[in-house]
Design a protein that fits this description.
This protein is an alpha+beta fold and about 230 residues long. The protein contains nine helices and four strands. The longest helix has 27 residues. Its main location: cytoplasm.
């Protein structure tokens, strides 16, 4: 469906920009992706998100919306007649979905970044264990929310699917760089199958960054994090 003046300011590696793209695809909307360089940050980014100065930023005509979860909710509400709802219709289920996306952004993102950023073997082992604990909880949530269906949201991709699925590529990067599985089919059978189904969905297929390219980007991030830590 064509829609005038829909633009997304993001970056190819950003899991948060990816969330917005998936939501737009689920709604069948046409949009333009504006690639943000970040180094230095563009005038467009600084002007459109002066508070946090972060991507993604979504432009709907002259309206500007920031923060990935908020943007996804906005898209779901504005285009409520397009395809299926991303958030549950039931208020209680909606609140739960928001809770788990917040949990993912807090606990999972922190654990995954720590695994990638840490060079010390003992510290890395600890961070892997913490990440695995979070995955065990997410596996439990998936089994409960999906009720035996393909996604957290049931038969179709929902809010929690987008929230967690946006990190799939970085999970693969972490596994590649550390030669250690995070998403294990023995420990996380539900999530392992879910990940394959999610990545193959028409709304997602072709959007996930290539692992090899993202590994090279992650190595650059590691150098920056190490330099920042040394400067403290």
């Amino acid at each position: 469906m064509a829609e005038r003046d829909l633009r997304l300011l993001g970056a190819w590696f950003s899991p948060f920009a990816l969330r917005v793209q998936i939501a737009l695809n689920l709604k069948g909307l046409d949009y333009e992706v504006v690639e943000e360089t970040l180094n230095p940050k563009s005038e467009l980014l600084l002007k459109s998100n002066p508070v946090h100065k972060k991507i993604p930023v979504f432009f709907h005509g002259d309206k500007v919306i920031c923060e990935s979860a908020i943007i996804v909710e906005y898209i779901d509400e504005v285009w409520s007649n397009n395809a299926l709802s991303i958030l549950p219709q039931n208020a209680y289920d909606r609140a739960n979905a928001r809770f788990w996306v917040s949990y993912i952004d807090d606990k999972w993102l922190t654990s995954l970044k720590s695994v990638l950023a840490t060079e010390d073997d003992e510290a890395k082992k600890l961070h892997f264990e913490q990440a695995e604990e979070v995955l065990e909880k997410v596996e439990e949530v998936f089994n409960k929310c999906s009720e035996g269906k393909a996604y957290f949201g049931g038969d179709t991709i929902g809010f929690v699917d987008i929230g967690f699925g946006s990190f799939l590529s970085f999970i693969r990067v972490s596994e590649n760089m550390n030669e250690r599985k995070l998403l294990d089919e023995t420990k996380h059978p539900g999530l392992t199958l879910w990940a394959e189904t999610f990545a193959a969905d028409p709304a997602v297929k072709g959007l996930l960054p290539e692992t090899e390219k993202l590994v090279e980007f992650a190595k650059i991030l590691q150098l920056k994090w190490a330099a920042a830590a040394a400067a403290k």
